[in-house]
Amino acid sequence: MSRGTQGGSTSEPRARLLGTATKIFYTEGIHAVGIDRITAEAQVPRATLYRHFAGKEELVLAYLGLADQGIRAQIATAQASGESPVDKVRAACRSITDGIQSPGFRGCAFLNAAAEYPDPAHPIHQAVLAHRQWFLETMTELLEGAGCAPADAAGRHLVMLRDGAMAAGCLFDPRLISETFLGGVEGILRTGTDSATEPNRTG
């Protein structure tokens, strides 16, 4: 449990520590960054960090929690902007490509963290799996609403395409990667809706 709230509000030193850690963890990696670097850049004494976080692991979990909240809000906003169920899927996927094309994009924070913490039992790896389960369930529900069947297979396919786009987006032309990803999403929508409307054939 984080110690970072006092009287129901986040303290300014905690916010500065988490903001600094978020920036450095994402751009440089988690294992490469020590507590001393974070406290120095946040201009917060080391003792203050330990008043808000039990240690580096708890700070990493808070960083991933912040990333999770941001992605949930991003997908919710995209869903709200779509008029039809298919539009909601497209809007959610466009929000992903907006991130890929944003300045300073360095891939998926969760995939990056999983690579640094490969032990499935580690709390940080568990946080990654929890986020990915939410994302899979959310996209599967959106695809089901759009008439894709089987929705679970379509959801897994979309998450796989998203993972590939997030990995490739910081290695190749992000605009081209985004176009390729969105084209793949259209393929999932076409295949899924065709399968849902195709009459059963026997013999």
Automatic annotation (TrEMBL):
The keyword Transcription applies. Residues 34-53 bind DNA. Keywords: DNA-binding, Plasmid, Transcription, Transcription regulation. It comes from the Bacteria. Residues 11-71 form the HTH tetR-type domain. GO terms for molecular function: DNA binding. The keyword Transcription applies. Pfam families: TetR_C_13, TetR_N. Transmembrane segments: none annotated. PANTHER family: HTH-TYPE TRANSCRIPTIONAL REGULATOR LMRA, TRANSCRIPTIONAL REGULATORY PROTEIN. This is TetR family transcriptional regulator.
